[in-house]
Design brief:
The protein has 80 residues and is of the alpha+beta class. The chain has a single domain, classed as Fe-S cluster assembly (FSCA) (GMP Synthetase, Chain A, domain 3), CATH 3.30.300. Helix content is 49%, strand content 28%. The chain is globular. The termini are far apart.
Amino acid sequence: MSKLETKILTALEEIRPFLVQDGGDISLSSISGSTVKVELHGACVNCKVNQMTLKNGVETTIKKYAPEIKVVESVLPLSK
């Protein structure tokens, strides 16, 4: 696991309790250059404010731990 991935996972652990409280969750999908892709799960998938949560909560927290990240995007959860 790279240092960058560790930083991002730490950031997701910080934001996760707030998402879980509302019936959702988040996971890291990929890192490519300065872009991180995350998957929102549970109630977060259909939440009307998920893009606001993504930008104001998730992206801000990731950038706090990994300022080299410039963009955070959500992707649809993979079906299992």
